[in-house]
Specification:
It is elongated and about 90 Å long. It has 3 domains: 140 residues, Immunoglobulin-like (Sandwich); 108 residues, Immunoglobulin-like (Sandwich); 66 residues, Immunoglobulin-like (Sandwich), CATH 2.60.40. With 344 residues, it is mostly beta strands. It is built from 3 helices and 21 strands. The N and C termini lie far apart (124 Å).
């Protein structure tokens, strides 16, 4: 009886030691953001990996990763090489930079298609991020799952190790880089489109206004343009020439200075192409900017030659689109007839 008691105690101790060893081994299996700390400048692109370490009989994984979308955005996700050392995999990743009002989220998973499990450690997911503005964001792992070789796979105990990204803010700098008029001749009282391109050369997401001028007269304003670091936006303006005197106009676009901006010189862009406000229908020459200050039979004949053309047509001349509807047709010819023989 005494021997039996001693044997049972020994078996119990061995069982506890085995269980303890299993728990210690399991605890050393990690899912980690690597490197754990990244430092970047606004506008930079950088990569991070999600890795596993000290894993045995590994066949599948699943995870979510959260981050502050005002600080960084994920631009690409590809499977890391580690699990694929066991054979082919079924991999999927979904990037949602606007997951909610504050966060972006990455959802990814992969599983081996064969029966071979892998051991050791390495990268299971490779991510590319773009630094959007100055600040700090955690890269937070959630709902991580590791599967073993059993059928069905059983969970492998592990620890999550999160990461952090520090983005240096840099300067505040908005620049207007282009201003393109749709037409070089506008019939007075009619409209024309103009496109303006602005870029964020600084290290912060900015909100600003853009104002368009013909000489010193305001044509239009776009309010609350939001532009992230390193990106550009093209805004379309409509110039209504009603009330403008006949003549040539120099166009310029001005982006308001944002708080803290120290380089206002690139906030203004002046187009090298002048636009003439003239008699509606005075478009008699195929030269883009030609006019003779009168609407006559030459103009009507020219509009007939361009009849039914549009921006995709080889002979397209936007000046012939008198009413600015994207096509030269009977409406434009009718306008020329209404203003026939009228001089500036």
């Amino acid at each position: 009886m005494k021997k039996t008691h001693v044997l049972l105690c020994a078996l119990l101790c061995l069982s506890m030691l085995t269980f303890s060893a299993y728990r210690i081994s399991a605890a050393t299996t990690t899912v980690a953001v690597a490197p754990s700390t990244v430092t970047a400048n606004g506008g930079d692109t950088f990569g991070i990996n999600i890795t596993v370490a000290n894993i045995v009989n590994f066949t599948s994984w699943e995870l979510k990763l959260y981050y502050f979308k005002a600080i960084v955005n994920c631009t690409n996700a590809v499977e890391g090489p580690f699990l694929k050392t066991g054979g082919g995999t079924f991999f999927n990743a979904n990037i949602t930079n606007n997951y909610n009002s504050t966060h972006g989220r990455i959802l990814a998973y992969s599983t081996l298609l064969g029966m071979t499990a892998v051991n050791g450690g390495g990268a299971i997911l490779m991510l590319t991020f773009k630094a959007m503005s100055g600040g700090t964001t955690a890269l937070t792992l959630a709902d991580t799952k590791l599967g073993d070789e059993k059928i069905p796979p059983q969970p492998i105990p592990h620890l999550d190790v999160n990461g952090v990204v520090n983005v240096a803010g840099g300067a505040h700098d908005i620049a207007v880089t282009d201003l393109t008029p749709y037409k070089t001749i506008i019939g007075r009282g009619y409209t024309s489109n103009l496109t303006v391109t602005a870029e964020n050369h600084g290290g912060y997401t900015e909100t600003f206004n853009i104002t368009l001028y013909a000489n010193t007269t305001v044509i239009a304003t776009v309010l609350n343009v939001i532009l992230t670091v390193g990106n550009s936006t093209t805004q379309t303006f409509v110039w209504n020439s009603t009330g403008f005197a006949y003549g040539n106009y120099t166009l310029s676009a001005v982006a308001d200075m944002v708080p803290g901006e120290t380089n206002p010189g690139d906030n203004t862009y002046t187009s090298a192409t002048q636009v003439h406000v003239g008699v509606p229908g005075d478009v008699s020459s195929s030269a883009p900017g030609a006019y003779d200050k009168v609407c006559n039979m030459k103009d009507v004949a020219y509009l007939i030659i361009l009849f039914n053309t549009n921006p995709s047509s080889p002979k397209w001349n936007p000046n012939a689109d008198v009413n600015n509807d994207g096509v030269c047709n009977m409406k434009d010819i009718a306008i020329a007839i209404v203003y026939f023989n009228q001089h500036e």
